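Quick one - inputs below.
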Amino acid sequence: MIKKLLELDGIFKSYPGVIANSNISFDINVGEVHALLGENGAGKSTLVKIIYGLVKPDSGNLLLNGAPFKPGTPSEARKAGIAMVFQHFSLFEALSVAENISLGMDHPPNQKDLGEKIKSVSESYGLPLDPAKTVGALSVGERQRVEIIRCLLQNPKLLVMDEPTSVLTPQEVDILFKTLLKLRSEGTSILYISHKLEEIRKLCDTATILRLGKKVDTCTPKNTSTKKLAEMMVGSSIKAPKKINKPAGRILLKIENVCSLSKSQFGTPLTNIEFDLKQGEILGIGGVAGNGQDELFAVLSGEQISQKGSISFNESNITKFTPNQRREIGLLSAPEERLGHAAAPNMSLIENILITAEQSQDLVSRGFIDWKKSKAFAEKVIKEFDVRTPSSKNTAGSLSGGNLQKFVIGREILQNPTVFIVNQPTWGVDAAAASSIRQALLTLSESGAAILVISQDLDELLEISDRFAALNEGTLSQIEKTADLSFEQIGLMMGGAKDLEARNV
Amino acid sequence: MFKLEKRPQQSQKWIYLSPFLAVVITMISGGILFAILGENPFEAIRIIFWDPLFDPNFASYSRPQLLVKAGPLILIAIGLSFGFKAGVWNIGAEGQYIMGAIFGASLALAFYPMESKLIFPLMIIAGALGGFLWGMIPAFLKAKLNTNEILVSLMLVYVAESILASVSQGLLKNPDGYGFPGSRNLQKYESAANVEIISNSGMHWGVLFAFITVIFSYIVLTRHIQGFNIQLTGEAPRAAKFSGVNPTANIVFCLGISGALAGLAGMFEVAGPSGQITIEFNSGYGFTAIIVAFLGRLHPIGILLSGLLIALTYIGGELAQLMLGLPGASIQLFQGMLLFFLLATDLFANYRVKIGTN
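Output:
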C-alpha cells in the first residue's frame, strides 16, 4: 500500500509584485523520487523553502505522516526528518570536510568519531570522501558529496535536492543517481528539483510540474514524452534554434600558451591554454564550474592580463590590450554574472549601455555623454532582443534574469563584434529566452563572427557549437568536432582525460 | 506587527523625502531634549531655525554669516561627494582644508608687503594645490599598497593639525605680533584679502567658488563620462573594471578633487573670515561637510541646500547658547542627530513598512 509522507494542501505564498505559489497541492509518497519540474521563476525554490522551514506560507497546510507540520526554522524541519542539499553550497573552504559537517549538526560528536562515520556512510552510498581534506581543495562534485553526506548523517525521511546535476559531469551524474536510487530502496523519499527533462524521466517516479507559481499537473514522467513535459513546463512549444553547417573561415583569434594566476585564493590558475578561433565558427568550452572558466574569460575580455603566452587578433598581438582597446578592434565579451559585472543593478538600461558600447556607438564626444544616442541604442537592444521592460529608464536590477540576459547579450551583438566571448550565455534564464539567445549567437556566427561560448550546460554546447573542448583544473582538453563526440567522451574530457585515444575509449 | 518589505526598485520619492523627514524628526527630538533641559522647546527651535534669518535684532548679523559658514561646507562637501559616489572614502577633508590654508597663506606672506593683482589668483592655486597634495598621500598609498584611505586620510588630519600648530608658532608667526602665536592678518593685506563681493551679504570669493563648483559638479555628474565612471565604480566595481575604468585613476581623481576643493575652502577662510593662521584655525568644517554631503544625497543641488541648513544650525546654535545658555555641544548634537535620522529614514527608500499580522 502506498503511504503518504508529506502532503501539501493549498500552499499560497506571495511576494511584493509576484505570487510565487498559488494554491499548490500534491503528495510525496514514502520511498518515491518525486520531481518538481519548472522553469526559473516557476516557484520551485519558494515551495522548497516552505517545506524546509525557511519561508512561511501565507496560507495552506502541510501534513507530515498525517500530522500537521509547520516548520518555523530549518532546524525544526531537520528534526522532523527533512534534509536539503542546496544548489549553492554553504561550505567553508578553509575548513576540512569533517569540520564543515560538524558545523551543521546540532550535537556534533568528536572529530574522530565523526570522521569514521563520514567514511562509512560515504562508502556505503558510493560517494567516497576523505573527511580530513580541506573543502577548498575539493572539486565541485566532491563538495556536493559533502552536502549530501551531511544530510544522510541525519537519516532523513525526505531528502530535498535543488538542481543537483547542474554542476556535475555526466559520469558524476550517474554516480549520484545510483546513490539516490539506493536511498529510495531503503525507503527514503526524495524531492528532486530540476528543469532537465531527460534526467527526470530517467530517475523520477512522479513529477509535479509548476508554471508561474501554479501547479500544472502531476504525472508519471516515464509514461510522458519529453516534448509533452517541456510543453507543460513552458506552456507553449519552444522553437529549437536552427544550426546551419558551414565551413569555418580564417583564424581570427589565436591563443598561445596563456597562463594566468587567479585573483581569488580558491580560484583556478590557467596553465598553457592554446586554441584558435575561426571566422564563422562557435567554439564551445565546457567543464564543471570552478575549473578556470572565470579566469579564461577575464584573460580574453582584458580584465586580467595573462602572465605568460600571447593572444593575437587578426595576426596582431593584443595580449596587453585593455578591455576598451579590445572593444575598439571588435573583440567584445559578455560575462557570466549579470548583476554587478555585465550590468550595474541600480542604474538604468540607458546608463548600462555605456558600460560597453561607448566606443563602437560613438556615445561620448570630448568627454561628454550623448544621452540621446545612448537611449536610442538601449531602445534598439530592447526592441530587437525582445527585452520585456516598461521603459529604458528602468534599472537593470528590476528586470527578470532572462530579460536582463537578453539585454546584456543584445548590447554586444548589436555592436557587430568580429570576435565575441561569452560566459554562460543562458545561465538561470527561462527556456524561451535561452532559446532566443542561442539563436542570436547562431545568427551572429553565420554573419561571419567568431564566437567562444564558455558554458556548463552541455546540451547548450552540443546544440550550438561547431567544436568543443573542456576546461579541467585550468587546462584545456583537446578540441574536437562536436558532431563526432559522444556524451561519454565529453565526460572524460571534462574529467581531465587529455588524449582520448590513449585511454582506449 | 510592523513588517519591512524590500521594494523591487529604490523609491525615488523617498530618496528626496527622507532628508526632510530627518530634519523634522531632528527638530522633534531636539525639542524633547530642550524640554528635558527645562527650556521651552518651541522657543528653542524658533531661536535655532527661525530667528537667525528673520528676527529683526539678529538677522542683520546672522544672514551674512549663513553664506560665510555655508561656503566652505558646500565647497568641501561637493568634493567629497565625488569620492563617496565612487566608494572612495575621504574622511580627512579637515586636514586638506588646513593644508590649503597654510599653502595659500604662505604664498601671500612670502610676497608681503608687495601689492599686486596677481597675488590673490596665485593664492587660489596654492590653496588648491596644498589640499590636492595632502589628498594624494592616501591616494598614493591606496593605489600602491592598498591601504585603507579612511584611516590614512583621517590620521593625516592630526598630522596637519600639528603642522598648523608648528607654523603658527614658528615659520608663519607674525614678526610684529608681540610674540603671540599666529600669522599676520591677511584681511589687512589688500592684495591677499578675500573680501566680500557684495558688502554685508557674506558673499566672499569662496562662496562664489562654492556656487560655481555646484554647477560644475552637476554637469560632470550628469553629462560627463568621468562622472558616469565614478558612479559606475560605486554602484558596481566589477562592472566598472569590465567597462574599462582604471581603478587607480579613479582613486586619484576622487581624492585629488576633494583635496583640492577642501584646500580651496581653507584658503578662502584664512584670507577672509578667519584672516590669519592660528592654532585654532580649523573648526571642523571638514568633518561637518561629510554630513552635508550625505544630507544632500551626494547631489550637487542637495548639497547646496543641506550646506545652507547646516550653516543655519551653526548660527542658530550659537544664538541658542547666547539666549538660552544651552551648552556649545548642543549644535554638534543637533548635526549628529540629523545624520543619524537621515540614515535611519533612508531605510524607506529601499523598504516599505507593512502593518498587519504575519
